[in-house]
Each structure stands twice: as structure tokens, then as C-alpha cells.
Amino acid sequence: MIKATHRPATKVDLPNLVALYNAIIAEGGFTADLTPYTLEQRQPWFNAHQCPPFLIHIVEIDQQMVGYFYFSAWRNGRAAMHQVAEVSYFLAKDARGKGLGRFMLEQAQRIAVDAGLRYLLAILLESNIGSRTLLEKGGFTLAGQLPEIADLGDSRCGQIILYKKLWGDKE
What we know:
Structural class: alpha+beta
Number of helices: 4
CATH architecture: 3-Layer(aba) Sandwich
Strand content: 25-35%
Largest sheet: 7 strands, mixed
CATH superfamily: Gcn5-related N-acetyltransferase (GNAT)
Shape: globular
Helix content: 25-40%
CATH topology: Aminopeptidase
Number of strands: 7
């Protein structure tokens, strides 16, 4: 695998984050977003991910951003869910297939455990076979399926939820 690093995002990263995400939207099949974002539209999302453990982490090779991952609170505000987070990750097209997805997932899990998160969830379109394979190889288990819930314009697609227990009593 290529030598990759990760670091928390700063405000100067927002244009690159938006450009990468917009490229992924344009590819289709990886996100339920269908139209590109402006910097102004993405600013509230960025602002909401400035407090640990819900930071955005930039993945770099030779100080060039190739992807990012972040956590979002699951059922935010519900006290019983304080140890559960959703993990999201995005990788530039030319960076895929090089072990960087596995790197991001491993780093995300380490950060989650250090932050006291017990469960990670991943929610993805069922058409995203690469991501599902990555998650399953990483020990995530299918928790639910929502058939044909996403209207992609010219087709419909299901969404799946996978989860992983990171620590605590094993079932």
C-alpha cells in the first residue's frame, strides 16, 4: 500500500473537500446526493464536524488530499445512542484500489475506540459494491436493507446499513 497519512481538516481544506465530493456525485452510484454543492452550501456541514469525535479527517499521499472520512452522531440528542456514530468516507477515483479505503476504515475505527464509541454504522447505496465489500472485510455486518428507497432520477436503488461493534461484551 502507498504511504498515506491523515489529519483533521481545517477551513482551508473546504474547497478540496467540496471538489472531491462533487466529483463523486458526478460519478453516480456512490452517494444519494445528485447535484453538486457550492462552498456556501457545504459550510454548515463543515462547521458541524469541528468537535471530536465528529471531525473530518483528510487522507493524504505526499501532502495531497486523496480522500476523507468523518463521523456523524447517530440519532443526535438521544442519550442512549451516545456511543454510536455513522462513519462516512470518500476516496478520489484514481486513489481507489490501492488499499486506501482499508487505511481510512482502520484509522476511523481506531479514532472511534479512542473516543469511546462502541458501535460504528455505515449507510450506503446498495449499488456501492466496493464499499460494501470493504466494510464486510473490515468486520461490519449487514443490519438492514431499504429496497428501492433512493430515487436516482433514471433509476431506483436500495440503501443498506452495516454496523460493527468495536468493543465491549461480544455477542
